[in-house]
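User: Can you write out an input/output pair for a complex, sequences first and structure second?

Assistant: Here is one pair. Inputs:
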Amino acid sequence: MGKEGKGNFQLKTPKGTRDWSGTDVVLREQIFTTITNVFKRHGGVTIDTPVFELKDTLTGKYGEDSKLIYDLADQGGEICSLRYDLTVPFARFCAQNAVQNIKRYHIAKVYRRDQPAMTKGRMREFYQCDFDIAGQFDPMLPDAEILRIVKEVFEELPEWKGKFTIKINHRKILDGIFQICGVPEDKIRTISSAVDKLDKSPWEEVRREMVEDKGLAPEVADKIWTYAQLKGGKDVVEKLQAMPEVVANESAKQGLENMALLCDYLEIFDVMPALSVDMSLARGLDYYTGVIYEVVTEGSAPSASTKDVAKKEKKQKKSADPDEDRSNDPTIGVGSVAAGGRYDELVGMFSGKPIPCVGISFGVDRIFSITKARLSESQALRPTEVDVFIMAFGGGKEFTGMLPERMAVAKQLWDAGIKAEYLWKTKPKLQNQFKAAENGKVPWAIILGEDELKAGKIKVKEMGLPDGHPEKDGVVVEKAKLVEEIQARLSGKASLPDRTV
Amino acid sequence: MGKEGKGNFQLKTPKGTRDWSGTDVVLREQIFTTITNVFKRHGGVTIDTPVFELKDTLTGKYGEDSKLIYDLADQGGEICSLRYDLTVPFARFCAQNAVQNIKRYHIAKVYRRDQPAMTKGRMREFYQCDFDIAGQFDPMLPDAEILRIVKEVFEELPEWKGKFTIKINHRKILDGIFQICGVPEDKIRTISSAVDKLDKSPWEEVRREMVEDKGLAPEVADKIWTYAQLKGGKDVVEKLQAMPEVVANESAKQGLENMALLCDYLEIFDVMPALSVDMSLARGLDYYTGVIYEVVTEGSAPSASTKDVAKKEKKQKKSADPDEDRSNDPTIGVGSVAAGGRYDELVGMFSGKPIPCVGISFGVDRIFSITKARLSESQALRPTEVDVFIMAFGGGKEFTGMLPERMAVAKQLWDAGIKAEYLWKTKPKLQNQFKAAENGKVPWAIILGEDELKAGKIKVKEMGLPDGHPEKDGVVVEKAKLVEEIQARLSGKASLPDRTV
């Protein structure tokens, strides 16, 4: 990056953006495909909204982070801005089209004019990958479906099975607990933000913030701590339901009933083993109204001594938007890899008619980085999907290069849908053809020899076999049966029995 | 669109943009998948570049159409613009990374602040779908591969097989012919643009433009016409090669040798039947240096009386960029559905080191519109991919709704990767469940009955069977074998033989 081109021209992408290419883009596409397959399994439909919206559409949705919105230049006509997330465009879409219910997914880039930190993975252009359910349904059924989707995604991503935890809480339980503890109504949101830091800061630091910075009575703070430490499975819900002061609070009571029902559903869906009901989870965004959740993984949770972290936290003013905290500093972990919750009021901000919504956003950039690190230890990605490289064997003055013959074989394979390449040289050296196949990690070679071809035969060779393997030099097959032979080998079946070895 | 929201707020997408949803987005995704599969079959790798580039990167690449570029507001820092096409970012990528060779595809949105004509399909945000090959190879081999890709794409798109023609010409042949006819060197580009109108205007009108507007001698124009009428297969190349004055021209001679070789290769690849060597094809863009081609289809070629068209042409100043001519006016056709050519100099504009390139851009918006029109006559698209809808059968006071049972079946199917839904109601009416399945065009229903379930049985029903069909009311199968049963039915195999009818 930053290489100079002709003259004074800077040959680079804009600050905070990057090109994706090579095996990085291959892996990212695999992640998208895995996630999309899960979304489709649950009846998801995709929508595609414009990359920019009327500026008014975004105004008043992001609080002080509105300053991070990219505006288009005023070139006459409407004033527009690049989208900041996919949720507000989704709410605009629902309101504009008076959508009654939808399960929609959207995988697309969003834009934030933040101070980029490329090494930490904080970019100005990055992908979001959202699934949201809008509509009026019986309680906790869409919520359960979302959490089942989360489980399927992380079980199906390579190297994630068994390595993730879904932390869950409920805004109504939290609000109820704050009331019970005696937090004044106007301090509930700010105290909630303080509680949300408990995954990164020790209690002493959070307590100090509550008492010194936010003016909470110390005994109220200490009471919050007795609840905030609760975490576990459904037992946490039952424990709270057994506390008379808790169920006496209407908000907490309702939230706990919701959570108990959700746990029943998640029991059926086999999601409970991955779940952690966690009273210290609060989430930053104001618009959540029900369940809230985030997914953490090995290496995404904080790993440094809590004191160091507390110091860092003090120095860095934390952004109000939880997604902004995309630090990859290994001493503090990367934060959550997916997060979401129920937000029943957002669509109403556009149309005046609220539609209940619940959703999840997968942080594909973080998921990509972690997956890449885990994979690189075990397996290498193929840069292309080409399965067969067609080569000509020969040399010397007599060697024609067999270009028409290689092209004819390529055509035959393409006609059958097989991914195949050959070298664009009339007389290629065998060595260069092997090199090209190896560079592309192509698993199979077809090698044409003039004598064999005259006899209607063709050689098929698996690349990368160890010395001494009986098929190291390839096997000779009938040219007429080439496609079936290759298809059998690609589908992992034993090759055709009647081939000539 | 244009509905009013709360207060003065306008609930709409920006001018010239639209949301994609419903079966439109399903069909468009199918088109993307078909095209991507072909690209991958030929070893294509994708790259993803930022949606905006440094303004300097785009400057000086689009001539007078530069005024259509969207700029980002100056909010401090670098000055950026939204990409206008995918070709210039690709050239920037190749130069920046000193790419020696690549087969890259890129499917993404581009932005042009043109006067939108939504009914004609001319949008300010639209998709391009490009495949380009960069690198030094033996002559015409990458060019042949691109044209084979074009053939495969249009043969595999639904309702396109046999309905497209690839028009092809070569800049060097054209330039040679112009020299032979006596076109002054400084008029070659502008006369070339006039010739390019022959697909929409009659010769009389093009001749008038050449002579009256562009000051060409009438006998020169008439000589051009003798060549411009030539069209056909390889015979056109042979006819020109048999003309002594043509082969005496070095440029024409080289171009014809190229074309003859390309035709030999396309013969092997079975592309010739779809090809029309057409001496009236010139293409607008300046940067082409070798073969040029465009794909036309029934309904994309002009259909009105040529006089009317000529009048229209006179009124509308034609844009210098051929992609701009996206009119859907049925009297003049939609123009080409894919176009491209060889451009050996563009990368050199960035790095000073030219890399030979050849490419194709598919006009997915046009392809979408034509495919949609053709499909709507015969078949309906499914809005989701859900294969199974799980229902509870029952009613009256005793009816529990069997929610846990429906959820358990859903889990069982999801675990097996089967796409399934159920109604998010604790006690749904059977009628509403059928309605939901019908609305989603879900092909299969699983119907739970309390008595059957107790006996370990479950009913499977194909939706939409005609009255009198033996399986109209469904078939009862073992609950334990449900997944195999569904998988067998979805894979199109006969259902398992041992099921209970």
